[in-house]
Amino acid sequence: MRKILCILLALVLALSLAACSAAPAAEPAAPAAEPAAPAAASSSLADGVLTVAMECAYAPYNWTQPDDSNGATPIKDSPDYAYGYDVMMAQRIAEALGVKLEIVKLDWDSLVPAVQSGTVDCVIAGQSITSDRLQMVDFTSPYYYASIVALVNSDGQYAAATGVSGLAGATCTSQINTVWYDVCLPQIESANILPAQESAPAMLVALSSGRCDLVVTDMPTAMAACVAYPNFTLLNFSGSADDFKVSDEEINIGVSLQKGNTELLEAINGVLATMTVDDFTAMMDQAIAVQPLSE
Predict the structure, then answer these.
(1) Which residue from 208, 176, 178, 219 is spatially nearest to 194, judged by alpha carbons?
(2) What is the helix, strand, coil percentage profile of the chain, to 5?
(3) How far is CA 52 from CA 106, 195, 218, in A?
(4) For residue 184, how many C-alpha atoms fall within 13 Å in the half-sphere facing its CB?
(5) Is the peptide bond before 60 cis (omega within 30 degrees of 0)?
(6) Domains recognised in the chain with CATH numbers
(7) 59 Rama class: left (phi>0) / alpha (psi -120 to 50) / beta
C-alpha cells in the first residue's frame, strides 16, 4: 500500500512540475505591424554632392587647367581642374543648394548617356535645348542664350560675306551632334560639308589649318576662338533676313537631367530664376577674359 501511495505521489509531483514548466497561456496576439510606408524617393543630392558632367574642353563654356586659379574646381579622378562659364554656373547652383560640387570630365557624345544612366546628376556643358535631346533628357530653363555665327579665315574668300547666301559653295564643318552641324550647315547652298568634328577645339583646328573654309558655332565660342586665332573673322548675321534659321529652343542653352528627376529640375530652376540675362552676360564675359586661349 505504501508502495502504491509513493507511486501516486510521484505521479502527482511529475504532473505538477510539468504544469509549472509549460508555457503560460498565450496573451492576445499583438496586432501585426503595419507595413512600413514606402521611403520617399531619395533625392539625387542625398549624398550632399552635385555631380556635373562636361567636356572640360570647350572654352569659354568649360576647359581644363593645371591649377585652381580663378576658383577652378577639381576634376574627379584627375590632377587637373575645370573652369569656365559652365563651372561658374555649377558652382553657383551647388552653393545655392547647399551641396558640394563634383566635376566629371566626359567627351561630348558621352554626356547624354551619363545623365540617362544616372551616372551624373546633370550636364552643364553648353547644350542647346533641342527637340531631339528633349526626347532623351529633361532640361532646365535656359542658363544662357547663344546666337549662331560663322568663323572664317580673314584672308579667305568668304571673309566679306554679309549673310548665309554669301557662304554658298563653302567647304565647312562643325562639332558633332550640335545644332551648328545638323541644322545650320545644310542651310548653306551647295556646301561641301565635311564629317563632323569630335570637339570644338578640333573644329577650330580644321579651320585654322585650311581644311575647311568656315565653321559654324555660337557667339561665345567664336569670341573665344578669335582670341586664340587672330587670323579668324567672326561673321554675325543676326538681325538680318539672311541669317541662319534656327528656333529659339535651339539657341537656348540649358542644364540637362535624367527624365523624371523633377526634384532636382525644380531646385536648379529655382536658382536660375534668381538670375537675369545681364547676369549671364557678365559671367560669360568673365569666362572669356580668363580662358586659357586668352593668355
Answers:
(1) 176
(2) 40, 20, 40
(3) 10, 29, 22
(4) 33
(5) yes
(6) 49-143+254-294 (3.40.190.10), 148-247 (3.40.190.10)
(7) beta
CA 294 to chain centre: 25
Closest alpha carbon to 50 in 279, 288, 261, 286 = 261
C-alpha cell at 227: 582670341
Q: At residue 250, does pLDDT exceed 50?
A: yes
The owner of cell 529655382 is: 270
For the entire predicted model, the pTM comes to: 0.76
pLDDT tens sequence across 113-155: 999 999 999 999 999 998 899 999 999 999 999 899 999 999 9
Cell representation of residue 139: 532640361
For residue 202, give the nearest of 75, 86, 108 by alpha carbon.
Answer: 108
